Amino acid sequence: MTKVLAARLDSAGDVLVTGPAIRAIASHPEVSEVALLCGPQGRAAAELLPEPTELFTWASPWTIVPAPPVDDEHIGALRDYVRHARFDEAVIFTSFHQSPLPLALVLRLAGIKRISGASTDFAGSLLDVRLKPGEDFPEDQPEVERALGIAAAAGYELPAGDDGRMHIVDPTGAFFGTPAHLRPAARSGSSAAASGTMSASSRLDAPAAPRDAAGPLSAPAAAPDAAGPLNAPTAPRDAAGPLSAPAGDRASRVLDPDEPYVVVHPGAAVPARMWPPERSAEAVELLSAHGHRVVVTGGPNETALTSYVAGASGIDLGGATDLRGTAEVLSRAGVVICGNTGPAHLSAAVGTPVVSLFSPVVPAVRWAPYGVPVELLGDQDAPCRNSRARDCPVPGHPCLASVIAEDVLAAVERLLAAASAPAASAAAGAAPTPGPSPAASAMTESVPTASAPTPGFVPAASSPTDAHPASSPPFSSPDIAPTDSARTESAQTDTAPTDTAPTEGTAR
């Protein structure tokens, strides 16, 4: 039997889009264990994936921003874990602008004999299976399909009947968005988690131990034993659970299935991908005025933003949920409205349609939400296109500031109408028409234009080119203020609405 290390070192959304590829590895009959090496920003998402038998969290100096220093202790924490674990092979998953070679070097020195990855650079003896982007597979493809291609090159393909969509699980083991998850019993399980009564023995319950001055594993770290190669001490999940107190009551009220709602997630870890806050606030007011119940979500560092955006019309859940709790909220929404950030991929993973306010700093064909109906808004031909800028390089942020609340309202209502059509057909006795597999789809053009839709992707009407004048929000935050300076992004980063991210060198 084979023990495989899958590696995805960046953020929450990146881990989620790699989920189907990890599922392909886990489904192989010769694979006995699949461990996932992830970064601190991706840990919360990794805990939602059903396939990994083990997680190891490590902050990669060549992936995350800000980058940790490279020193013997830091590199040694990963090397020691890999040596103790005795993996037979590793599959390194990267985005189009990342290299697998630094990690491949560390893994090779730690004793892994077979390593697979995609690299534009000559890999020498660092990769045993090397895919050449642009030659062995197209660069302009969804990230989910890119990851599946890397897994397939390593010898791991999805089993027959697997649709290739992203999936995550709740604490009961049920997939989000399925009847098993949405039935009352599953909802009561979520309530138990919210009240702190969820079993501490659950594979998903134990957060990683924090790093302290003693080194990469909190002292006293246990010696390797049957429980795991580096049996790092873990703390039980606190009483906050997936729906963090004291806002759990608000979140529970939102989850009432008799009260439909849409979600606005205004934040983004990368400012260049964020719709201006005043636009989000206008959208909440307009949606509410048209009879939509609007929930505003955000992380604990975004409470000023979510309060401003929610105003008097929306329900503010800023800071009220961790990533799993956010997934609960998104899974019950009719539509989610957000930028190119972690919750967009989380929405896709729970099966909820998305109005994607997409800044073209990275290509939509690669990073738009996958496998669900999507309305893509934003000027995809703006000067910032493909710049990978973290801060908007164009004064006024025209690629997204040009999108107005009326555009979002129209997109929301198109998605809701499309979702209600199969239900109406079923009620009338007509069999719904099955949709195509998302794995067979690819966007051929970044929109909004009048281009033909592709499976799982709904093109939006063109947005106005002139931005509405709007007042600035009544607070100041460097995380949301537009800037005229551009910085090149070294890694795909996403907002993960969690209180803290585990630090490097921690194992589950």
Automatic annotation (TrEMBL):
<feature type="region of interest" description="Disordered">
    <location>
        <begin position="186"/>
        <end position="254"/>
    </location>
</feature>
<keyword id="KW-0808">Transferase</keyword>
<feature type="compositionally biased region" description="Low complexity">
    <location>
        <begin position="186"/>
        <end position="233"/>
    </location>
</feature>
<dbReference type="Pfam" id="PF01075">
    <property type="entry name" value="Glyco_transf_9"/>
</dbReference>
<dbReference type="InterPro" id="IPR051199">
    <property type="entry name" value="LPS_LOS_Heptosyltrfase"/>
</dbReference>
<feature type="compositionally biased region" description="Low complexity">
    <location>
        <begin position="427"/>
        <end position="442"/>
    </location>
</feature>
<feature type="compositionally biased region" description="Low complexity">
    <location>
        <begin position="493"/>
        <end position="508"/>
    </location>
</feature>
<feature type="region of interest" description="Disordered">
    <location>
        <begin position="427"/>
        <end position="508"/>
    </location>
</feature>
<feature type="compositionally biased region" description="Polar residues">
    <location>
        <begin position="443"/>
        <end position="452"/>
    </location>
</feature>
<dbReference type="InterPro" id="IPR002201">
    <property type="entry name" value="Glyco_trans_9"/>
</dbReference>
<protein>
    <recommendedName>
        <fullName>ADP-heptose:LPS heptosyltransferase</fullName>
    </recommendedName>
</protein>
<keyword id="KW-0328">Glycosyltransferase</keyword>
